[in-house]
Design brief:
By secondary structure, this protein is mainly alpha-helical. The chain is built from eleven helices and no strands. About 85% of the residues lie in helices and about 0% in strands.
Length: about 290
């Protein structure tokens, strides 16, 4: 092909042919990705269930010389924990307690973490003053803090909520601050030329641009909040019985089908919270931000 032909613009008919050639390819790609989104998770779930059965019927005795009742089969877990009315009600009651603590702690962490990040974005001296202590709070193992929290604040709702706040605060502050400080310099220059105030710049420019990063932090913190609620219940073992308390009780009684049922409930709660914040992020951000465009 000559260079003259390469430099020649497409005619009207040729443009239509090119468009018709590209469009089906994109549609096929979307269709293929749609199938992967369904088949992929189902395949991984099938492998996971297969490994679970393998652990019960062979691996525990053959490799670790352990009794197979330590890992009950999936159908036994479903029958015992979820198809028996009394057991199901017990797990659902624990789920309500854990979900209440997790959501309450997450809500407090969102308000506190977002407020701290906005102050840190506006005042550099405040950022430098607070950041080392936030890193230190994140670095301290939550398992070391839980007994101290229980001895000071008791073992009720407030102490469990505090554990959730501590474990979920840092991702919110870090992601929100990153988003607020990552706005394009050219957009800042436009606001400077308009002579807008710092508060207007924050609410009209930085905060909308930071929304994808903010909701990424919310999703991470949501999962951590569920973990914090369960860890607090495992250690406190007093007050209303949540999923963590039930898990420890069933394990001590060698009721492993119910213990695994409590694990399933905890996992479902974490997934649901993560999905909820993903949906909220999609509704709030929509398709206007660059991070959501294909």
């Amino acid at each position: 092909m000559s260079t003259d032909m390469l430099d020649t613009p497409l005619g009207h008919g040729e443009a239509i042919v090119a468009t018709q050639t590209v469009a089906p390819t994109a549609a096929n790609r979307r269709r293929r990705h749609g199938w992967i989104d369904i088949v992929g998770p189902l395949a991984v779930f099938a492998v996971f269930i297969g490994i679970w059965y393998l652990m019960h019927h062979w691996a525990l005795r053959a490799i670790w010389d352990k009794p197979n009742f330590l890992v009950p089969t999936p159908h036994e877990v479903v029958r015992t924990a979820f198809l028996t009315n009394d057991n199901r009600e017990t797990l659902l009651g624990g789920l309500r307690v854990t979900a209440t603590v997790a959501f309450l702690g997450l809500a407090i962490a969102i308000v506190l973490g977002t407020g701290l990040a906005m102050l840190m974005a506006r005042r550099q001296w405040f950022e430098r003053s607070m950041w080392p202590y936030l890193v230190a709070l994140q670095a301290i193992p939550i398992l070391a803090l839980v007994p101290l929290i229980g001895s000071i604040w008791g073992y009720g709702l407030s102490a469990r909520t505090l554990v959730c706040v501590i474990i979920s605060l840092f991702p919110i502050v870090a992601n929100t601050l990153f988003g607020l400080l990552s706005v394009d310099k050219g957009q800042h220059d436009l606001f400077t030329l308009r002579g807008v105030s710092s508060s207007t710049r924050l609410w009209r420019l930085q905060f909308p641009a930071a929304l994808p990063a903010i909701f990424a932090g919310f999703r991470i913190a949501a999962g951590l909040s569920v973990i914090g609620a369960i860890v607090g219940e495992l250690f406190f073992k007093r007050g209303d019985k949540g999923v963590g308390t039930l898990l420890d009780t069933f394990r001590n009684r060698n009721n492993y089908p119910m213990a695994y049922g409590a694990l399933v409930v905890a996992a479902v709660l974490g997934i649901v919270v993560f999905v909820i914040f993903g949906l909220i992020s999609r509704l709030v951000v929509g398709k206007w931000h660059e991070s959501t465009r294909s």
